[in-house]
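Structure (tokenized):
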């Protein structure tokens, strides 16, 4: 399988994850496509990246608000998300492939509990593995020539309930379900993508769409269904360097269940994500992104980040 084919396959395997009500978040940048598109050798691929998302800006609808400006039982103050995400992908040479992704989240959260007129500060700090994703794909060549090959494909898989959803603080108070490292649910993932590489100009582009839906609920909680759409370009310049630019859109429905916060979950987000990459050799590449929100419209009151940062390394195993 040519590396441009592998790049396209990796592009659409994981849905973008946006903010939850109390601040659990992952970057919506599509790291798989950008980090593979400049590599040369075929074979099993990996990606490891680190994300930093400081959600310290409460929003009500599309407006920034101060902590406690809109009265709630809990006034959310801030959540700092530090995520390490490892991904392994394998193509089988006949259009089929599989990808496995596993996150490790380091999360600090603070809110104010309003109890009978008293304001009680509460906090959680934990480092926990999250939910593993296993996604298959089928890909076909969709036109172009040797200098401008293009590919299209579909993805299908599951998010598995591997992360804990019962994490508590030192006072034995469990964190809100949207803050937990895992949802406790099995989610169906379906998507489609298209990718084209322009070898003569050392450039490439991709588009993708993906839908994620929980097929069950767990302990009174079901995360809202989520639709994401990404578009991106990469342009090479100089020996090994690449300029990267993406638009990332996410629409998440409200969570449901007795343990959920339906009035303060879900929303619409549009991000602009510029970045740079550097190919160390034909099998290894490093990259970085800054993600800037263009549109944030949340249900109720939720924490958001004014920007997020992401850096990683990817390559071929052999």
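Design, position by position:
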């Amino acid at each position: 399988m040519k590396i441009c084919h592998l790049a396209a396959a990796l592009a659409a395997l994981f849905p973008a994850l946006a903010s939850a009500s109390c601040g659990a978040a992952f970057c919506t940048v599509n790291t798989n496509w950008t980090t593979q598109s400049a590599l040369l050798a075929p074979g099993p691929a990996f990606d490891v990246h680190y994300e930093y998302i400081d959600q310290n800006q409460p929003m009500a609808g599309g407006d920034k608000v101060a902590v406690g400006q809109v009265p709630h039982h809990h006034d959310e103050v801030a959540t700092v998300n530090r995520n390490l995400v490892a991904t392994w992908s394998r193509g089988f040479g006949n259009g089929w492939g599989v990808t496995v992704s596993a996150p490790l989240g380091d999360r600090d959260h603070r809110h104010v509990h309003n109890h009978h007129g008293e304001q009680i500060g509460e906090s959680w700090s934990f480092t926990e593995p999250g939910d593993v994703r296993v996604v298959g794909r089928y890909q076909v060549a969709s036109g172009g020539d040797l200098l401008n090959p293009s590919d299209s494909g579909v993805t299908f898989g599951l998010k598995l309930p591997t992360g804990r959803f019962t994490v508590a603080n030192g006072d034995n108070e469990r964190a809100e379900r949207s803050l937990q490292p895992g949802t406790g649910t099995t989610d169906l993932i379906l998507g489609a993508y298209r990718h084209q590489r322009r070898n003569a100009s050392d450039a490439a582009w991709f588009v993708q769409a993906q839908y994620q839906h929980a097929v069950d609920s767990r302990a009174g909680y079901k995360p809202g269904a989520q639709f994401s759409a990404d578009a991106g370009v990469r342009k090479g310049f100089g020996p090994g360097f690449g300029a990267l630019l993406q638009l990332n859109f996410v629409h998440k429905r409200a969570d449901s269940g007795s343990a959920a916060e339906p009035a303060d979950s879900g929303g619409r987000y549009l991000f602009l994500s510029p970045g740079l990459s550097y190919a160390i050799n034909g099998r290894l590449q490093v990259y970085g992104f800054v993600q800037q929100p263009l549109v944030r419209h949340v249900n109720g009151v939720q924490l958001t980040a004014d920007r997020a940062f992401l850096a990683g390394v990817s390559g071929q195993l052999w």
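Reviewer-requested clarification: Residues 1-21, 34-41 have pLDDT under 50 and may be disordered. The first strand starts at residue 45 and ends at 55.
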